[in-house]
Amino acid sequence: xxRVVAVVQARMGSQRFPGKxxxxxxxxxxxxWVLQRVLRSTQVDxxxxxxxxxxxDDKLVSAALRLEVNSIRGSETDVLSRFLLAADDSQADLxxxxxxxxxxxxxxxxxxLIVDHRAKSVDYSCNHQQKLSNKYADGFGAEILSxxxxxxxxxxxxxxxxxxxVTSYIWDNQKEFKINAVTAPAELAFPEVKLDIDTPAxxxxxxxxxxxxxxxxxxxxxxxxxxxxxxxxxx
Length: 235
Prior knowledge:
Shape: globular
CATH class: Alpha Beta
Oligomer: single chain
Order of helices and strands: EEEHEHEHEHEEHHHEHH
Number of helices: 9
Largest sheet: 7 strands, mixed
Number of domains: 1
CATH superfamily: Spore Coat Polysaccharide Biosynthesis Protein SpsA, Chain A
Low-confidence stretches: none
């Protein structure tokens, strides 16, 4: 049986927004939003937090543990090696990469990604943002690849950019891989919608959105997109 593990990538040492992962969005921290939403996926067998060995990330490990999510700790800058550690430790067959700056990552879209990937003979699939004209709104999905491919990338890539951005080697060498960009359902086919958080200003804006439209951890992606488009038109 194929074992699917979602690896959530997070750290406290963001240059643009230090401490971002424990900042509040509505009633929860960003990390809680991400972990609790990923845990709702029906196709994921285990969720793992991949963070760094820096002492400032101890708080992330503690926060994950409260949700019964195990953590793997490795290099702050060599994120690829950190993912491989997580995949090895969890004995994953397929690895779903989730970036923790996407608080509205949707379990139903993770499920769509996993099902679509397993149904096709491809190396890599994604639905986290618009790629190859799939028209996805940014911030609801993830990327998926096999444990074996993750090992291959870790063994053959040496450029810092490829080590820091786990799947960038695949996109920089597209002819070497069978890439699948999952087509967005009509209700999420709004690539202009971007819901990731990189700066305090973006967090403040999403806090206002969450407050005005009563967005909860259990709110589905299509409802969030519909509400956010109204919010954007009003502000």
